[in-house]
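Lab notebook, bench 4. The sequencing result for the construct came back, and we need a structural model before the next group meeting so we can plan mutations. Quick request posted to the team channel:

Model the 3D structure of this chain.
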Amino acid sequence: MKIWISTALLLLPAAALAASGLDGSWKLRLDSLKVTGKPDSYVIVDGMYSCSSCAPAIAKVPADGAFHKIDGHAYYDEIAIKVVNPNTVEISTKQKGKLMGTDTATVSADGKTLNGKFTGYAGTEPVTGTYTETRTAPGPAGSHAISGSWLQSQINSGNDALRNVDYAMSANGFTMKSNGQSYDAKFDGKQYPVAGDPGHTMVTLKKVDDNTVEETDYRQGKAVDEIHLAAAKDGKTVQLTDKDLVHEQTTTMIFDKQ
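Done. Here's the predicted structure in token form:
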């Protein structure tokens, strides 16, 4: 997931900032979010947790509630899997000893729906929310109810730290800020860092027109997301389309002008 003015921008003439339909403060419309593509797949069986859709894949971590070291992930180097009951699992992650997030997921009695509650600590303020996923494939016989494949169907709630983002365009570049993370990048094809991002994301930008920007995100030396930002002609909304190259998912969402 992935939406995230410098002092110099504040010194620009107002006319320079007013030219872009993307300029301003925006808030995610929760019911607009749609995810398509490859589902998330994980399994807990014989006391071990695996996640084949994680990048890189996670294989056979003890589901004993303790933190275990894990390699290759940009936002965490430890993971803890706690089986709360036959329908509920809590997943927590750390990076360099700091808690990065917790996610409690509960499967419905009929096994078709997963309801989750999460808290993330990658920004200035904790990000909180709830979501629903729909089962696309069952888990193996004898596995925990959470096992199988799931695709997110909706975000039910989210705080301002999750939903708010500011954009501004100048003649040569574009800026973003959201919950302590920001970038100030030029339209020159070079990579620029996302300040405050513990995953050390780098971005390149392309200006399509005054209302449209294309962004490519890089982590660990690889392109991971292709993001298309387009402001509506009436200036009231922005549509963001995020093509997740790693997980083979595409997410679309709408932001309303504040």
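The chain has two domains: 7-34+161-257, 39-155.
Will bring this to the meeting.
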